[in-house]
Amino acid sequence: MGRALVSVTEGLAAVRARIDRAVAAAGREPGSVRLVAVSKRHPVEAIREAHAAGQRVFGESYAQELERKAAALSDLELEWRFIGHLQRNKAKVVVAAGAGVDSIDSPRLATAIHKRASADGVVVGVRIQVNVAGEAQKSGVATDALDALVDHVRGLDGLRLEGLMTIPPDGEPEDARPHFRALAALADRYELPVRSMGMSGDLEVAIAEGATEVRIGTAVFGQRPG
Questions:
Q1: What is the pLDDT of residues 41-57, one digit of tens each?
Q2: CATH assignment of the domain containing 74
Q3: Which of 117, 143, 167, 189 has its CA 20 to 30 A from that of 10?
């Protein structure tokens, strides 16, 4: 069930309070974890409400939906992050919308985004999605292929490699801890500052293990429509 009859403003406040408590419990600096509000399949009015409450970073998973929302909300100062699986032929749409890409999982995708960014005269901030648990059904580069992909992305001047992202297997929040810990260790190995990990159900565990960004949808916006 979603958060019945709770506004986006109230949802944001509750999530920010959870983040602040988790940061304090981990002995980390206030403000060291950024909230990405996952707005996919939610209306532009909900994003406007979140913006009015101070939220600036939003995550989308579908290229056409991102394109439509970016156009409809062009009057607002927003940062868009593309967090879903991106097909190479949709790179043009995502780059044109001004979004960063958090789901780089192959050299071919990285190259496609780089080519479009270079053609548009921009540099796209990206994160590599790592399939830490090795789940066959999930996107993300395998850990044993990460070295090569990091090198490839760093060699493309249309991209700026900012960090790593992971989605742990379904389960209880504590079950995700070793996967979050592994991603943080990989980010340290490559000297990457961004560790994008943790969602509505497990953000406290992710922050305890070093997340610098959490991607929260349901706890902010409620159940997705449809």
A1: 999 999 999 999 999 99
A2: 3.20.20.10
A3: 167
For the chain, give the percent of residues with pLDDT over 70: 97
pLDDT greater than 80 at residue 225: no
Q: Is residue 1 part of a domain?
A: no
Q: State the Cα–Cα distance between residues 203 and 205, nearest whole angstrom.
A: 5
> For residues 214 and 82, what is the distance between their CA atoms, to the nearest angstrom?
14
- Cβ neighbour number for residue 94 with a 10 Å cutoff: 25
CB 104 within 8 Å of CB 153: yes
| Residue 50 belongs to a domain | yes
Q: What is the pTM of this model?
A: 0.94
Q: Does residue 4 register a pLDDT over 60? A: no
Q: How many domains does the chain divide into?
A: 1
Does a structural domain hold residue 116?
yes
What residue type is assigned to position 30 of the chain?
Answer: P
Is 2 within the bounds of a domain?
no
Do 82 and 61 touch, CB atoms closer than 8 A? yes
The residue among 18, 12, 23, 73 whose CA lies nearest residue 221 is 12
Burial class (CB within 10 angstroms; exposed 0-12, middle 13-18, buried 19+) of 38: buried
